[in-house]
Structures are given as C-alpha cells and as structure tokens.
Amino acid sequence: MVLCHKEHCWVEVEAMESGESSSNERYAVFKDSSWFRQFRNGSNPWMARYVYGLIFLVATLLAWAARDYGRNALTEMEKLERCKGTKDCLRAEVVLRVSLGCFAFFITMFLSTAGTSKLDDSRDSWHSGWWFAKIVMWIGFTAITFLLPSVIIQLYGEIAHFGAGVFLLIQLTSIISFIMWLNDCCQPDKNAERCQVYVMLLATTAYVVCLVGIILMYIWYTPEPSCLLNIFFITWTLVLLQLMTSVSLHPKVNAGILTPGLMGLYVVFICWCAIRSEPAGENCIRKAEATDRTDWLTIISFVVAVLAIVIATFSTGIDSQCFQFRKDETQAEDDVPYGYGFFHFVFATGAMYFAMLLIGWNTHHAIKKWTIDVGWTSTWVRIVNEWLAVCVYLWMLVSPIIWKSRQTAESS
C-alpha cells in the first residue's frame, strides 16, 4: 500500500471496502505502480549516482597511477613515438588518454539520457541499470584511447582546458545558488526570531574563519617583503571580502550578513588553493613539495584533493535546478528526481577538470609524484576563478535593483 501511487492506493481501498477486490486485482494495481516497475527493472536513480561517482573516482585514480607509476606503459608509448617530447609530456599524455576515455563514457551517457523526464521512460532504465554493459563500455573507451595517435590526444588536451573552465563555472553557479538559497531560508520575515540567532552565529563564525585564514596566509606565504605577488593575492582577497559585505549591507540591497560571510569563506579557500598551486622551490612557498622526499602530509593533501574533486563533481551534478529558468514548477510523482543529462554532462566536464589538475594545466611542465594542481597556470586559473566568483555574486545582488529601475523608468 505504501509503495504505490496515491491514486492506485485509493482505488484499491475503495475496492476492498466494496468487497469486490481480489488478490489478482491488488497485484495488478501494485504491479502498475512506477516504484514497482523500477524495482522490477533493477533501476534506482538515487543509487545510480553513487555508482557513477565510483566510476569517476576509479578513473581519477587510474589517471594518477598511470602518471606516477606507469613506467612500463610510458616506455611503450615512447617506443611507438606517440609523444614527441620529454618524459613529462608522456606522463601528461597518459593522463589525457584516461581522461578522454572517461569523458567519452559520460558524454555518451549524456547524449543517450538528455531530456529524460519520466520514470517510465526507457532511458531511465538505461541510466539506472545495465551496469555490466556500461562498465564494459567505459573500459572499452579507455582502452581505445591508448590506440589513438598523439595528435588527437594533444587536441583533446587543448579542448579540455575549455571543458575544465565550463566545469568550474557550473560549480561556481551551483555554490552561489546554494548560498543564496540558504540566505532566503533564514530571512527574518520567514522564520522570525528563532533563526536569527543561528544566522548571526553562523555569519560571525564565517567572518572569524575568513580573517584567521587571511592572517595565516600572510604568515605562511609572505615570509619576506619581496613576496609581492602573494601579498597582492591575499590583500585583494581581503578587499573583495569587504566589497561583498558593503554591497550586501547596502540599504537598497539589504541581503544580510550571512551570504557575504559564506562567500568570503569560498574566496579565501580559493585564494589559499591558488597560492598552494605555486611551483615548489619558490622563496615565498615553503612546503613539502620543495624537496624530493614524499612525506605523509603530501600524501594526505593529495588524497583530500582527489576526494574533493569527486565530491564536488557529484554534488554539482545533481544540482540541475539552479540552472532552470522556471523554478516554480511542482514535481510530479513520476518525474525523474534529477536531470540525467545535466548529471552526465557535469561528469564529462569533470573528467576534463581532473586531467587539468593532474597535469597542472600544462602538458610540458615537470610533474612530481603525489602532487596535484601545481604550476603557475593552476595558480592563475584559481585566482581568476576567485575574481569571477565575486563578480557573479555581486551581479546576483545588484541585478534585481537594476532591472527594477529600468522597469520603473520605462513605465514612467
């Protein structure tokens, strides 16, 4: 009774009350429910997310293992002259090949599931089931990439720069949308006084963490007055934090203090990641990567970074609602729980993103074992992402006022 749709359960109860129900009729009603059809077909869209996330994690680890420990594979590729460059070029190319296999798998899933809206659609079963066939398909795509000429792989590497940027933009929009949604849930006129204490506590904690993080970055990454670039990065982050707070508290905006505090945490974290991505050996970067020895801190940082990539891709993939133009539509019982096409598209661009992190956004720079997202290109990508995040956030604050002013001017 609980597992079937409301209308089916009502029909069954009505039949039982009239004394006309039979076991065959009850089974037919139960069999007609969409939940039973999903169970019968072995499809579960909620559990399918975790399987795709596991495939993505395995692909990321495979690319890392091939880069750091695939000496035999690199030797064979050098014999076949697949990469006309140094060993660093070969290590970067093997990452791109694994990434291309993962991208081909998820872009195929995107093309075959885009537009799925109902649970009784055959594409829902394809998305949530057929795991043996899809695993074989992923392995096949990955194997085929090692047979492709180097020219195609290098072309994919150039395209992956753009795809990784698309992933960062999608992730940025998702994070800002979540912060704005959290702020809307804590508006005074909606939850009165009980929520205000938690809002002030959360906002105060966010600002304290931001200031502590900025102070620590000054201590760790500006040991000398000559570290002008790091001083500029950190100081400009502090200026952006003040700018977001001022705009949010402006009487015409009145967006509160919570959202700039949470956005401050995000931009401070990006600034820290950007400085950490600077090449080792610099006078302003005193960290474990400056030596040839791989210690436990480097390994832990690498593991955390890989898990962060997978979690960010997973959480962004199921947040297709933040890209819908009409968000007031009510979801029917037989609608899919999330956008399948968007989910696979995010994972496809995420495959390009993890490739760029593992090669430092550059196919010809030296790559040290157990490192990820290291290099000046990685640093500037992070910094630009930070500035773009602030611009998008400020636009989301002031755009309603601008549109309202235009509508008032046109009506007058």
Automatic annotation (TrEMBL):
Swiss-Prot/TrEMBL keywords: Membrane, Transmembrane, Transmembrane helix
Domain of life where this protein originates: Eukaryota
Pfam families attached to this UniProt entry: Serinc
GO cellular component: membrane
Transmembrane segments: 50-69, 90-111, 131-152, 159-182, 197-221, 228-249, 255-275, 296-318, 338-362, 383-403
Membrane topology, as annotated: Multi-pass membrane protein
Subcellular location(s) per record: Membrane
Annotated InterPro entries: TDE1/TMS
Family classification: Belongs to the TDE1 family.
Protein name as catalogued: Serine incorporator
Organism of derivation: Carya illinoinensis (Pecan)
